[in-house]
UniProtKB/TrEMBL annotation:
Keyword set, alphabetical order: Membrane, Transmembrane, Transmembrane helix
Protein name per UniProt: Protein exod
Species classification: Bacteria, Pseudomonadati, Pseudomonadota, Betaproteobacteria, Burkholderiales
Any single Pfam family the record assigns to this protein: ExoD
Superkingdom of the source species: Bacteria
Residues spanning the membrane: 55-72, 111-135, 141-160, 167-189
Length: 197
């Protein structure tokens, strides 16, 4: 179960701060997808931790690119070694795992064509796109981080547990995120036009 893997990874966090490097080293061979799932958890609940969306969003993009190229990931040192406040991050991650635990009961291997090697590049590209959406500088706007985070989580759940239905749900989540961002952009543009007019 993905929730068990994530709980174990979070419980192993020691000290006042944690870095992405430490999380990657602790997550083993499944690390890339596991870190992508973990990186979406802080945004499932309305709590803002400064700097987290940039670090985790960039990590998702770079890890997804590594999956796309079918090679080991390369991450810049300033992303790998940026200290994050463990005391604030761990409780948020555990709350995110509670969401994953509810999802776990519905996950099962199905529709293997959507999770196999032939779809690797498409799925990786969508994951990278989700990471870019997560990095968008819209933090103060409600659900601007939550919407892409849900898509990323559903997509990674589907890939880790070979569930094509959840891969499709992840795609849907990312499409809805783009629609939400488009509406925000339209409202901002029309509001600005009215002010200038």
């Amino acid at each position: 179960m993905l929730s068990h893997l994530l709980t174990t990874l979070i419980d192993d966090i020691d000290g006042d701060t944690v870095t992405l490097r430490a999380l990657l080293e602790a997550s083993g061979r499944q690390g890339m997808l596991l870190i992508c799932a973990l990186s979406s958890l802080p945004f499932l609940i309305p709590v803002s931790i400064p700097g987290v969306s940039t670090v985790f969003g960039a990590a998702i993009v770079l890890l997804a690119c590594a999956l796309f190229l079918n090679r080991l990931p390369w991450l810049p040192q300033r992303i790998l070694d940026k200290p994050l406040d463990a005391a604030r991050l761990k409780p948020v991650l555990h709350k995110g795992v509670a969401v994953v635990r509810r999802i776990d009961r519905w996950v099962q291997p199905r529709w293997p064509a959507l999770t196999g090697w032939t779809m690797l590049r498409v799925n990786s590209a969508m994951l990278a796109f989700g990471g870019l959406l997560l990095m968008a500088p819209l933090g103060p706007i409600p659900f601007s981080n939550t919407a892409p985070a849900v898509g990323i989580l559903l997509l990674t759940v589907g890939l880790v547990q070979r569930d094509g239905l959840f891969v499709l749900l992840g795609y849907l989540g990312l499409v809805l995120s783009v629609a939400y961002f488009s509406v925000l952009g339209y409202l901002a543009w029309t509001g600005g036009s009215m002010l200038w007019g």
